[in-house]
Amino acid sequence: xxxxxxxxxxxxxxxxxxxxxxxxxxxxxxxxxxxxxxxxxxxxxxxxxxxxxxxxxxxxxxxxxxxxxxxxxxxxxxxxxxxxxxxxxxxxxxxxxxxxxxxxxxxxxxxxxxxxxxxxxxxxxxxxxxxxxxxxxxxxxxxxxxxxxxxxxxxxxxxxxxxxxxxxxxxxxxxxxxxxxxxxxxxxxxxxxxxxxxxxxxxxxxxxxxxxxxxxxxxxxxxx
Length: 224
Hints:
The protein is an alpha+beta fold. It is built from seven helices and seven strands. Helix 2 packs antiparallel against helix 6 (185-195) and helix 3 packs across helix 4.
C-alpha cells in the first residue's frame, strides 16, 4: 500500500521557490536570523543551519521549525506561520512567513481578552504534544488579538510527558479539538511519515506516547 502523501499549500510552494531580492540580518541572542524579501513582495524569516547556536546544533533546529509547522497545518491548529526548508544564498535552513504588523505581548496578556486566553490554552496543548518546553513571551507574537507561535526550533526534544500535570488543564480545555485530532488516522499517518524525515525515531516514539497520554485523559481508545 502506498504511503499517504502530504500536499503542500500554495503559500509553502511560493516561499520555497521565490528568489530572494534582499537579505537583512536580524539581531538575536543566539542563532543567525535573516529577514528576506522575496521577488513576489512576500517576506520570510530565514534561519540557516550553519548559523544555529553551536551548543544546540545536535537538534538541527531548522528541521524542527518545519516539523512544528506540519503538525500545525495538518491538524488545523492555526498557530504557526507557514514554514519550509530551502536554500537562500547557498545556505540551507528554515524559511517562515514573516508576520507583518505583529508584536510581542510585553507581559500584558491579561489585557488581550478571552480569544487570546483560548489561544494560550491551545498553545499549551500544542507545546505538550510537540515536546516544547522553550515557550516564553519572546517566541510568540500577537496579531489582531490572536496568538502566533514562532521560534519552534527546539520542539520535539523535551520530555514534556514527564511534566504532564502542568499541561493537563490545557488538554481538558481543548478536549473536543484533540479528540478530532486523535481519530484522524490519515492525518496522523501522513504526519508521522513526514516526521521520520526530520527527527530521530526515539523522539517520534515519545511523540506517540504523548498522543496516548492525551487519549487516556480524554477517555478515548487510541492506537497507532
